[in-house]
Amino acid sequence: MDEAREAELLQALSDVCVEGNYKKGKELAEVAMNEGLDPIKAILDGLTMGMGRIGKLFERKEAFVPEMLLAAKVMDQAIEVIKPHLTAPMENKGTVVIGTVKGDIHDVGKRLVALMLRNLGFTVHDLGVNVAPDAFVNKAIEVEADFICMSALMTTTMQGMITNVEYFNQKGLRERLKIMVGGAPVTPQFAGMTGADGTAPDAFAAVNRAKELAKQLFEERGLAKATVSA
């Protein structure tokens, strides 16, 4: 494939994420694979770049949650087309257990973070909503999790994040995990009170923070990991 055609396909994959057209995204992914575009480039230099663009629009309040969800769906379905063409599996960048804390049933932001992390190479176990502390702990043990991500959208339920972190401490699991908390009412100050390792104001920032923590975690463990692309 010549460089001009490669650049054209990568730009089209980026654009279709911003447009939120998942049917067109699948078709473009099929065309790109049939024409021999490198699948890793398609994901990192095409789809992921598009997600970055919609993230910047979101930061400027020129795009909103529905547009973000559509963009994530485009990426998700296009990657399903691309996966069979990968000569080797995408490197697992860490195992995540994610859920909305007990008493809270808000799901949209948490689902978006889970989808984006999965598409970037994290193994994600989504426990859903109204998740009790022991459910987080049991799943973390079962899958040997590297990360716990907790969401809350109500001030009355965000206190559960403190309870959950304390429970991980009691079970002797805290030192091996990175914990992130998020949701509209969660401030950096409150995140600090919980004992979590990080927070973020929105889904895109959360994913970027997760990538930073992934690098930090594996450096602490002395493991060599490939850089997580933006």
Task: Describe the model.
The chain has 230 residues and is α/β, with parallel strands linked by helices. The protein has 2 domains: 3-85, Methionine synthase domain (Methyltransferase, Methionine Synthase (B12-binding Domains), Chain A, domain 1); 95-220, Cobalamin-binding domain (Rossmann fold), CATH 3.40.50.280. Helix content is 58%, strand content 10%. The chain contains 9 helices and 5 strands. The chain has helices at 3-19, 22-34, 39-59, 65-82, 108-119, 133-143, 155-170, 188-194, 203-220; strands at 95-100, 123-126, 147-151, 178-182, 198-200. Strands 2-1-3-4-5 form a 5-stranded parallel beta sheet, sandwiched between helices. α4 runs parallel beside α5 and α5 crosses α9 (203-220). The longest helix is centred in the N-terminal third of the chain and has 21 residues, at 39-59. The chain is globular, with a radius of gyration of 18 Å. The chain starts with a helix and ends in a 10-residue tail after the last helix. Mean pLDDT is 89; it is low at 224-230.
